[in-house]
Amino acid sequence: MKSDRHLFSAEAIVAMQKAVRNKDFNSFKEYSGIINDRARGLNTLRGLFKFKKGHPVALDEVEPVEDIVKRFTTGAMSYGSISREAHETIAIAMNRLGGRSNSGEGGEDEARYPLDSDGSDRKSHTKQIASGRFGVNAAYLANCNELQIKMAQGAKPGEGGQLPGHKVNEEIARVRFTTPGVMLISPPPHHDIYSIEDLSQLIFDLKNANPDARVSVKLVSEVGVGTVAAGVAKGKADMVLISGGDGGTGASPLSSIKYAGTWWELGLAETQQVLVMNKLRSRIRVQTDGQLKTGRDVAIATLLGAEEYGFGSAALVSLGCVMMRACHTNACPVGVATQNPELRKRFTGKPEHLMNFMCFIAEELRGIMAELGFRKLDDMIGRVDMLEVDKAVDHYKAKGLDFSKVLMPPERVDGEPLRCTSQQEHDFSLSLDPELVEACKPAIEKGESLSLDRKIRNCNRSVGATLSYNVTKKYGSEGLPEDTITVNFDGSAGQSFGAFLTKGITFRLKGESNDYFGKGLSGGRLILQPPLDSTFSGFRNIITGNVNLFGASGGEAFINGMAGERFCVRNSGATAVVEGVGDHGCEYMTGGTAVILGPTGVNFAAGMSGGVAYVYDENQLFDTRCNLEMVDIEPIVGEKDIIRLKILVQRHTGYTDSLVGGRILESWEESLPSFVKVMPIEYRKALEKIRERETQNTETTAITEEVFV
């Protein structure tokens, strides 16, 4: 029986690990020879290419290794898919080199943010913002120098990662704001992005949430990706990543890893051509990843148009991975891709191993640069004219392949450069936050309580994001004491009002709000109510747009009126009270509490794996509108649920002067039977297991105390 052909053969793994552990460049050349030979065996498209003859220069004239490695990153491998030891070792290594490690979509433990006593930096300086928004809050956003929007992983186009429930231990659940033992699935597309304008808004949100970080967008290589990349550039992203379809987390289903997306060579070539022809290349950097393993791979990527390079599997192999391809089983024998504490003890990787690998890649690349006649990588970017199809490759599979469009130099309009030579011009002229930050200095610097009154218009977007950034940089995720900063707004708020609002900040808005109200809410409080002189009833009218509280991780929102579609999508910790929602309410919710004091649209609770929703089902029709695939609907009979629900309705009424809330409270005993509780099935099972363990621990403690009395 013939096995699959893999680039990483046993011989290649042994040679690479010998090289990085002994700091032996000759062993590395042996490894790269094995990889490149297999690549020429038609495992990759780049295996069919060869370099044209250049005008060689002396090696000592070529850009040094120390500068080249700063362009290197590691792939987006989440904490959860790989062990804490592996994840932190990667971060330390890349930070020492001056490159970047990528957090993946799994969040990051805040204990990694400050430097260690020995000066080591365990923080991933590229933080990923995926469709699932796992672990994303104001502190996460503030502690990095790059924020990466994950539109697709390096596998199936448009699909997020997946983490089996048995890999979600208590630590992973805490970092990701979810529940131990419950499987985590990212929703296929971003549920706050349905157009290039939505993507542009998220880029603007992130630039406000961390003004010092660049924003990148990760796309998967596929037909037409160049057009999408052009939209990304017009949306003011600082970098676009073209990820090959032959990568992806080993914890994902096989269908998400195999035969999904196309090779990065095709997507990168198309992206470079489209950006140059549309005079966009000068203002955006281009990165690529997907099974990059040798200096030759990096050289070809550079000639096709990339100026930064990501390494995933190869980075793990340098740290001890033996490619057992059992990542999803939680049984990695070398402690790389497991959360099993006993197996994690077997991890032997050191930062120096990965650093040696990256330096070897750069050194091999320097040799190719010298041979081709390039002294600097900047001069090599986009020089596709130095590549040609290798005529020596004689294989029936290669016959008929036409690479003329892939290796075609782009049409340069007005001398458009082949690489990024400038920066995006971000317009913050209509932002309210600079003035808010200045007015709130007594609170930020000295913790003094203050209250402000401000007018707001719908052109004022992402209000509160930069204010929260300044609070978070000083106080961390703990923020300020409750209501330290209170801002009373009057008018119509633009998109992303209260985005990533942190603890200690309260925004009260009398008026209305556009889409993305409370996006990523991080502990702050939002209060929305109609103007006092309004002639309409809040509960009969939509007062805030779509995708409210998307990815919220904490805090509260009280809305006197109805919300649009996709309310509380991926809520993982916030408490929200609203008087009616559109379709897809509480979709993919993983935690927190939602109280709906009015009608809902269809497909409520689709993909909901955690948290609780209480719905006022006055017409007894809710069961026809709820997606029952992952949740149960049950009456509210438990005393804790009753008390909790009543308190939330009382607070909502007190904050917003809600008519519907007041009416329910006036006839509480009669209204209570009209409420139903939406409870995720797996969430309930997980909570029961947690309670059982707590009970067992309590009983054991009691017996132990009795023995030692």
Structure description:
By secondary structure, this protein is of the alpha/beta class. The protein has two domains: 12-415, Aldolase class I (TIM Barrel, Alpha-Beta Barrel); 433-692, 3 Solenoid (Pectate Lyase C-like). The protein contains 21 helices and 23 strands. A ten-stranded mixed β-sheet has the order 12-13-14-15-17-19-20-21-23-22. The protein is globular. The termini are far apart. 56% of the residues are buried. The model is unreliable at 153-158 and 701-709 (pLDDT under 50).
Q: What's the quick description here?
A:
This protein is an alpha/beta fold and 709 residues long. Residues 153-158 and 701-709 have low confidence and may be disordered.
Read across the widest sheet, the strand sequence of neighbours is 12-13-14-15-17-19-20-21-23-22
Structural class: alpha/beta
Distance between the termini: 67 Å
CATH class membership of the largest domain: Alpha Beta
Mean pLDDT: 90
CA radius of gyration:
27 Å
Low-confidence stretches: 153-158, 701-709
Number of helices: 21
Strand content: 15-25%
Q: Find the CATH superfamily of the largest domain.
A: Aldolase class I
Instruction: Give the overall shape.
Output: globular
For the sheet with most strands, the description reads: 10 strands, mixed
Return the CATH architecture of the largest domain.
Alpha-Beta Barrel
Q: In percent, how helical is the residue content?
A: 25-40%
Instruction: Report the count of strand segments.
Output: 23
Integer tally of domains: 2
